[in-house]
Write a structure and sequence with these properties.
Elements: H1 17-21, H2 29-42, H3 45-50, E1 69-82, E2 85-96, E3 102-113, E4 116-122
Antiparallel strand pairs: 1-2, 2-3, 3-4
The structure holds zinc ion (ZN).
């Protein structure tokens, strides 16, 4: 797929999250977080599971026809790297059907193992 990357960096998809979806390691937790947002947009369930830490990885994700969101954009608010762990705070906006736009704000934890970043989960406020 050509065109701008869904994650909003302004780069082309192939130059941005497309490389990560193809198997390249993420440079940092923010890049991984962005690639996961793009994977939601593209409904790449395999990538979402692969980038999820095994300790918190859910069962396979089903993108069902009914409640399928339309993703509207991503804003990264903060990226705090600390060696092999990092926190990223972001807002992802989406809409389901004809409903109004929803802002999902999350402060997420990431860890790096064997050179690969993984999403662990939300940090409790
Ligand atoms: Zn991207």
């Amino acid at each position: 797929m050509d065109g701008a990357c869904p994650c909003g960096t302004g780069r082309g998809y192939a130059d941005c999250c497309g490389r990560l979806h193809a198997g390249a390691p993420a440079a940092d937790a923010e890049a991984l977080m962005r690639s996961r947002y793009s994977a939601y947009v593209r409904e790449d369930a395999v990538y979402l599971l692969r980038s999820w830490h095994p300790s918190t990885r859910p069962p396979p994700i089903a993108f069902d026809e009914g409640g399928r969101p339309t993703w509207l954009g991503l804003t990264v608010l903060r990226h705090d790297p600390h060696g092999d762990s990092a926190a990223v705070e972001f807002i992802a906006r989406y809409r389901i059907g004809g409903g109004s736009a929803v802002r999902m704000r999350e402060h997420s934890r990431f860890v790096r193992e064997d050179g690969h970043w993984f999403y662990v989960g939300a940090i409790d406020a």
